[in-house]
């Protein structure tokens, strides 16, 4: 298993062109949101001393307050939260589709004989598997839906206890357990569909329901090992993002952007490798 | 000769502190005893074992302290606000209980079953409900008793009252939850008789408003002697206004506690069989250093005996799950007693009780009663100043509501707003800036600190709302509760903060101290505060209060434009002594070019303010424009060049929307700034207060949008979990 882990990391670093491609694509995707922010800051700070203040690491509070006051009259946190949420959801779905598209390419590269990146392999893989992966994602939504329904059911049970509670302590652990359960369920579903995708590429399969079923069987059979692998990769993701959250220095933070995409490539590579070591 | 003198004064000082901290304080201006309540109340459990039934007798001695002959008495019956959905309180608030409705058995009410003149007439048949504020005939929160024999000036009346009450499920401030009960606004409380001229009244009469969604309370000072009988499970699990006087175990298994307090205008109490009760002493001599006493003596220019504080017995009643926060509660209470005391005058009572309501009983939290406050905290506090903020705020009400007893119905800014201003000052003195970590599911995972200036939230919440109401509006007459909150809290905070920055901190401290001391144990109006400011500063601030307390206009100044026109040496053909002389243009040496500089400043809002300005030039010099006074609708400015100290004057007519300041033959002006010291927090838009001739915001924009890019990417990455 550790060999799988190192193989994955190695695979990702070997294919730096792939990582670069992913990075450029994801930055291009964010540009439509970043440009208005850029323009807003330019137009509201240009020719004022706020621009100087904004160069410091702290948010310049009077500016921030007045941006809200002046640019968004009638601003309310609730409606802003809703708009922001819907916006993020729409962007997220778009980005998800883009990544489904790329996932085919990444796996095609990693599943090939020499495991080396080439534009031809990447784009043909992306094109060939996109529709299959989309179908897989749609199937996965049912599973995620079940997980969320279970979570909500437990939550409403807890809620009934909570509304009569005289101490928070009596409900807090239940709430956390429920969250943990949700994360576990999501991780499991996630794992199943990771394997379903890999298997689809390896077998060049078109029958997605069959692949889903096979992945479920695989995940259950190799439950412990599979959990460890997913745990590892989730852990790697988390520690990576934790690093980033804790970073106060802007330039360092920006330097970590490619790291995120490398991690994404690494995760796929690592899973392919681990799949190989299980199967063979 | 100096040393012995210092030594002597040191000795005297120690002596003084000693005597003051042992409580031998000469009586300060005490309150007039208008009311004298003796209440004997028994709390009973309902059939579900909830502590919510009250049975009581009340003896009230009321003094007609006016020059009027009074024909009726009026009482508040606040608990009837929770009687049904027809009450004014319920109609105004929409009965919001976090989306829930009252369940059967959760309503609250109060019944006056008997009211008699001691040893005389039974007034019970005469009682009637009135509704002085609206036409809601169903509202039963004000009771009127016509008297058959009018009460003459200076006469006292003694009433024997019997009443039953049921507490609601904790809703707005008052009620029970599980084994907890917060018993506030629970007894028939007489209104305030205001004579002509009192609080600037035209016609004498009762000030006894109904209970409204946004309104708080108003009552006369006096003394309370309350005996509370509770089931044995509440033994030593009780807190109340005033000093514990005695307790006794009764044969029927109940316990009776007696609490007494003078010079207050309300009485509240609480029980919870889960309370963790801790008492510690605020020792003035330990808490306040000599240095601090000296500093305040000097700052306020008052004798030391008016500055020193007295000891206070502080009791904290905590929920068991918040047991580990006991030190934070005491530290906050001690900080509040200390700093409010130094600023406005010592806390005159001997006790303070801090109550922590249970989970789901938060409706009882964050409330003030004389010598008893309710706070509220969370199981895992993530913020640096919570619960501290609420403890300091509610303690602050001992000063702005408790001691300076303004009318919370009609002038809510004078308690909530004054308290917003002073709470922020105490918090930043004692704790520094608030730091907000961002918790995930209540767990402070990411301690990304958001440092906030105290005025930041006030500005954010206030200035975006174009004001629908003046600050000075009766609570139930604001357009909505948002406008009430915005005006009574944040906007007042900004007004007082602006006044402080305009006057300077020391002068403002004197103003607030003088106002507080003059009106302690009394009922001032807004105008009394305005007069007090004038009296202390010797300046007339009518223009300020008219605009910002009584008005709704927006204040916004902006720098519109800076222009620099190069001054050219003469060039061309000139007639000189009958001859044509051609003069070639001479280029000035680099760095010594001269310009006719000009800056255009605009008053973008309807309101005006004598704002300061600063203009910066390329040669490193600065010219400041300081308003030196306002007369006949004109603001006079003193302009001073920092480089050579050159001074001149200019003026700006208040009615004019713009003004150009000209600097002929000067260095190139590179930037201009309105209010460089950021005194005018009321300016609705600070981003247009500065202008730079050349700079662009590209650097800042790149920096912050690259940050945005990063966060967007991070959020998007979360979605790829599904791919
Ligand atoms: Zn308050």
Instruction: Work out the count of structural domains of chain A.
Output: 1
CATH topology of the domain at 33-245 and 255-268 in chain B: Immunoglobulin-like
**Gyration radius of chain B, rounded:** 31 Å
Q: Please provide the count of β strands of chain B.
A: 35
Figure out the total of helices of chain B: 14
Structural class of chain B: alpha+beta
Q: Any idea what the shape of chain A is?
A: flat
- Helical segment count of chain A: 11
Q: What would the average pLDDT of chain B be, to the nearest integer? A: 87
pLDDT < 50 stretches of chain B? 1-27
Return the CATH architecture of the domain at 33-245 and 255-268 in chain B: Sandwich
Q: In CATH, what is the class of the domain at 33-245 and 255-268 in chain B? A: Mainly Beta
- The percentage helix of chain B is 10-25%
What separation lies between the terminal Cα atoms of chain A? 12 Å
Biggest sheet overview of chain A: none
How helical, in percent, are the residues of chain A?
A: over 70%
Assign an overall shape of chain B: elongated
Specify the oligomeric state. Answer: heterodimer
Q: Biggest interface, which chains?
A: A-B, 79 and 71 residues
In short:
Chain A has 280 residues and is mainly α. Chain A has helices spanning 2-14, 16-45, 50-55, 61-71, 77-111, 119-162, 169-203, 208-221, 223-246, 250-255, 257-279.
Q: Overview of this structure, please?
A:
- The complex is a heterodimer of chains A (280) and B (723).
- Chain A has 280 residues and is mainly alpha-helical.
- Chain A has one domain.
- Helices cover 86% and strands 0% of the residues of chain A.
- Chain A has helices spanning 2-14, 16-45, 50-55, 61-71, 77-111, 119-162, 169-203, 208-221, 223-246, 250-255, 257-279.
- In chain A, α5 (77-111) crosses α6 (119-162) and α5 (77-111) crosses α11.
- The longest helix of chain A is centred in the middle third of the chain and has 44 residues, at 119-162.
- Mean pLDDT of chain A is 74; it is low at 238-257.
- With 723 residues, chain B is α+β, with helices and mostly antiparallel strands.
- Among the domains of chain B are: 33-245 and 255-268, Sandwich (Immunoglobulin-like), CATH 2.60.40; 559-692, no CATH class.
- Helices cover 24% and strands 32% of the residues of chain B.
- Chain B has 14 helices and 35 strands.
- In chain B, α6 (326-344) packs parallel to α7, α7 (388-396) crosses α8 (416-431) and α8 (416-431) packs across α10 (481-503).
- The model of chain B is unreliable at 1-27 (pLDDT under 50).
- The chains are: A mainly alpha (280), B alpha+beta (723).
């Amino acid at each position: 298993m550790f060999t799988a882990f190192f193989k994955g990391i190695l695979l990702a670093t070997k294919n730096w062109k792939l990582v670069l491609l992913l990075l450029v694509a994801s930055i291009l995707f964010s540009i439509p949101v970043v440009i208005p922010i850029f323009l807003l800051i330019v137009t509201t700070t240009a020719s004022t001393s706020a621009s100087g203040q904004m160069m410091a690491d702290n948010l310049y509070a009077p500016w921030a307050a007045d941006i809200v006051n002046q640019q968004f009259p009638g601003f309310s946190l609730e409606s802003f939260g809703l708009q922001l949420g819907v916006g993020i959801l729409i962007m997220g779905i778009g980005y998800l589709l883009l990544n489904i598209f790329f996932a085919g390419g990444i796996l095609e590269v990693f599943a090939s004989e020499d495991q080396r990146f080439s534009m031809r392999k990447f784009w043909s893989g992306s094109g060939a598997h996109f529709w299959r992966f989309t179908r897989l994602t749609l199937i996965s939504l049912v599973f995620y839906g079940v997980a969320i329904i279970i979570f909500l059911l437990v939550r409403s049970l807890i809620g009934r206890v909570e509304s009569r509670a005289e101490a928070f302590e009596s409900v807090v652990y239940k709430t956390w357990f429920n969250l943990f359960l949700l994360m576990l369920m999501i991780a499991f579903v996630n794992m199943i569909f990771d394997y379903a995708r890999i298997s689809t590429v390896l077998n060049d399969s078109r029958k997605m329901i069959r692949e889903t079923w096979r992945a479920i069987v695989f995940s259950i059979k190799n439950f412990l090992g599979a959990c460890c692998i997913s745990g590892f990769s989730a852990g790697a993701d988390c520690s990576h993002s934790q690093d980033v959250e804790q970073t106060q220095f802007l330039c360092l933070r920006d330097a970590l952007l490619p790291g995120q995409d490398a991690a994404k490539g690494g995760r796929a590579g690592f899973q392919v490798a681990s799949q190989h070591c299980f199967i063979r | 000769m100096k040393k012995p003198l210092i030594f002597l004064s040191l000795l005297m000082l120690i002596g003084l502190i000693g005597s003051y901290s042992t409580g031998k304080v000469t009586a300060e201006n005490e309150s007039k005893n208008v009311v004298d309540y003796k209440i004997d109340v028994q709390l009973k459990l309902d059939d579900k074992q909830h502590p919510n039934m009250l049975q009581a007798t009340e003896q009230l001695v009321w003094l007609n302290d006016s020059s009027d002959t009074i024909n009726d008495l009026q009482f508040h019956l606040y608990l009837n606000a929770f009687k049904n959905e027809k009450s004014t309180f319920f109609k105004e608030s929409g009965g919001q209980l976090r989306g829930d409705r009252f369940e059967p058995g959760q309503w609250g009410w109060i019944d006056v079953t008997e009211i008699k003149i001691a040893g005389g007439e039974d007034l019970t048949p005469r009682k009637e409900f009135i509704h002085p504020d609206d036409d809601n005939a169903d509202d039963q929160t004000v009771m009127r008793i016509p008297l058959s024999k009018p009460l003459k000036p200076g006469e006292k009346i003694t009433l024997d009252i019997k009443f039953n009450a049921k507490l609601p499920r904790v809703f707005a401030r008052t009620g029970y939850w599980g084994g907890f009960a917060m018993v506030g606004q629970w007894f028939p409380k007489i209104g305030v008789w205001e004579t002509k001229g009192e609080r600037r009244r035209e016609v004498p009469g009762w000030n006894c408003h109904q209970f409204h969604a946004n309104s708080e309370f108003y009552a006369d000072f006096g003394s309370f002697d309350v005996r509370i009988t509770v089931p044995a499970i509440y033994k030593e699990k009780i807190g109340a206004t005033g000093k514990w006087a005695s307790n006794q175990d009764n044969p029927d298994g109940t316990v009776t506690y007696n609490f007494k307090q003078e010079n207050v205008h309300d009485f509240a109490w609480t029980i919870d069989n889960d309370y963790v009760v801790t008492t510690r002493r605020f020792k003035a001599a330990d808490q306040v250093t000599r240095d601090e006493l000296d500093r305040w003596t000097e700052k306020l220019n008052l004798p030391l005996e008016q500055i020193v504080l007295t000891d206070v017995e502080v009791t904290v009643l905590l929920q068991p799950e918040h047991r580990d926060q006991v030190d934070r509660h005491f530290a906050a209470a001690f900080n509040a007693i200390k700093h409010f005391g130094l600023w406005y005058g010592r806390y005159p009572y001997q006790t303070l009780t801090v109550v922590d309501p249970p989970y789901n009983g938060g409706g009882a939290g964050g409330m003030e009663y004389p010598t008893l406050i309710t706070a509220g905290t969370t199981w895992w506090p993530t913020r640096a100043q919570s619960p501290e903020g609420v403890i300091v705020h509610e303690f602050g009400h001992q000063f702005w509501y408790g001691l300076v007893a303004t009318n919370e119905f009609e002038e809510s800014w004078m308690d909530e707003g004054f308290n917003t201003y002073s709470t922020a000052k105490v918090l930043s003195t004692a704790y520094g800036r608030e730091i907000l970590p961002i918790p995930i599911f209540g767990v402070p995972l990411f301690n990304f600190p958001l440092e906030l200036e105290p005025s930041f939230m006030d500005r954010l919440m206030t200035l975006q709302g174009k004001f629908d109401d003046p600050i000075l509006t009766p609570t139930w007459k604001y357009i909505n509760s948002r406008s009430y909150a915005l005006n009574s809290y944040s906007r007042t905070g900004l007004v007082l903060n602006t006044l402080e920055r305009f006057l300077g901190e020391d002068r403002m401290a004197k103003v607030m101290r003088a106002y507080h001391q003059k009106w302690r144990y009394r009922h001032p109006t807004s105008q009394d505060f305005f007069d007090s400011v004038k009296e202390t500063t010797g300046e007339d601030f009518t223009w300020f209060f008219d605009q910002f307390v009584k008005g709704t206009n927006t204040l916004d100044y902006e720098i519109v434009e800076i222009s620099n026109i190069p001054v050219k040496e003469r060039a061309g053909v000139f007639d000189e002594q009958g001859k044509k002389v051609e003069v070639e243009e001479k280029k000035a040496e680099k760095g010594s070019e001269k310009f006719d500089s000009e800056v255009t400043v605009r008053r973008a809002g309807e309101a005006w303010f004598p704002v300061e300005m600063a203009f910066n030039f390329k040669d490193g010099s600065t010219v400041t424009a300081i308003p030196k006074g306002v007369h006949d609708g004109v603001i006079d400015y003193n302009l001073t060049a920092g480089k050579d100290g050159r001074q001149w004057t200019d003026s700006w007519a208040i009615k004019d929307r713009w003004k150009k300041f000209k600097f002929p033959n000067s260095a190139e002006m590179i930037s201009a700034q309105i209010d460089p010291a950021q005194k005018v927090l009321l300016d609705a838009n600070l981003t247009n207060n500065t202008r730079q001739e050349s700079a662009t915001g590209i650097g800042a924009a790149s920096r912050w949008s690259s940050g945005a890019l990063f966060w967007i990417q991070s959020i998007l990455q979360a979605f790829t979990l599904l791919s």
